[in-house]
Amino acid sequence: MALYTVVMAGGRGERFWPLSTSRLPKPFIPLLGSSSLIQGTVARLQSLVPPQQMLISIGIEQLEIARQQLPQVPAENFIVEPIGRDTSACLGFCALHIERRDPEGTMLALPADHFIGNADAYLKTIQTGLENLEAATGIVFGITPARPETGYGYILAEKPAVHADAWPVIRFIEKPNAETAEKYMKSGNYFWNSGIFIWNNRTLLDLFRKYIPETYAGLCKLRPLIGRKAGDEEIKEIFASLPRISIDFGIMEKTSGLRLVPAGFVWDDIGNWASLERALGADAHGNVSQGSHVALDSSGCIIYAQSGTVATFGVSDLVVVQAYGKVLVCSKDKAADLKRLVTALGPQEA
């Protein structure tokens, strides 16, 4: 079984304005340290698969920066989506590239921009998933809820009567309200959907044929064009016709025989500035900062200074970000809604 990883890096990351932009979206910015999120993701995977078996799925605007940040990945492994059509089109397209290299290959698909707290436990969990793949249609990885989170999707799994590393999946659940999320957290059978999946590549293509036939028909048209430089315009036209649908909604929620491996690592999807509190250590007053920050009588603030110094005095529970000549100041409870501000600013400012 040859394992190929597909690192999905097509998101825009509008909730991280002004640091994240359409040309330099969230996966490519150094939110948690000196390396970008995608650099950290690829570094974790290198002991699992060689760079020759890593596919990086990106938009055309990110191709240059992706190559600069990931020089160890071969040029032909950057899979450019001509237009964003959500994760089903992304993974279907990558499945064709894997099929061309190895018809019997296995795909590990994962987002480029998540926080992983323990690399060794992460790799051990992925290995557990690979060991259980033969008896399953596919493997999903669930995160034990640490709080009644309403911003994530959940997976309900059946706890085996005897100890087992992989639990039968009962169903996928959309983002719940606060009361429901509280019940899920207490039950022990509900997990956050990490967005990390493993399939046999051939099985995944069969699932497209069964559950998203329109996408599968498009993939069949794309198949003979893979690797042909002269086919770029035709690829773009076909890709644009694919339905915009997530892999969760299009396939995962409809598929039987999935197994869930409970994650043995700390995880966060780093969805907005406020989530840095969970990924980075705070000072004695609850302030979390990246870059130069001087605080006086300030508490519970999240500070990001790209250059120079940000000083806070007598304030609490603010997000303050300085990047690219722009400054963001907002309350932490508005951080998840930052897309509204980006829309109001318009394309020239954002």
Folded structure, characterized:
The strands form three sheets. The protein has a five-stranded mixed β-barrel. It has a four-stranded mixed β-sheet with strand order 12-13-14-15, with no helix packed on it. 30% of the residues lie in helices and 26% in strands. It contains eleven helices and 15 strands. The protein has two domains: 3-268, Spore Coat Polysaccharide Biosynthesis Protein SpsA, Chain A (Alpha-Beta Complex); 273-349, no CATH class. The chain is globular, with a radius of gyration of 21 Å. Helix 3 (86-101) crosses helix 6 (201-211), helix 3 (86-101) crosses helix 7 and helix 6 (201-211) packs across helix 7. It is of the alpha/beta class.
Distance between the termini: 45 Å
Number of strands: 15
Please state the second-level CATH architecture of the largest domain: Alpha-Beta Complex
Shape: globular
Count of the separate structural domains: 2
Helix content: 25-40%
Order of helices and strands: EHEHEHEEHEEEHEHHHHEEHEEEEH
Contiguous low-pLDDT stretches (5 residues minimum) are: none
Biggest sheet: strand arrangement: 6-9-7-8-10
Structural class: alpha/beta
Based on the model shown, name its key terms.
350 residues, alpha/beta, 5-stranded mixed beta barrel, 4-stranded mixed sheet, 11 helices, 26% strand
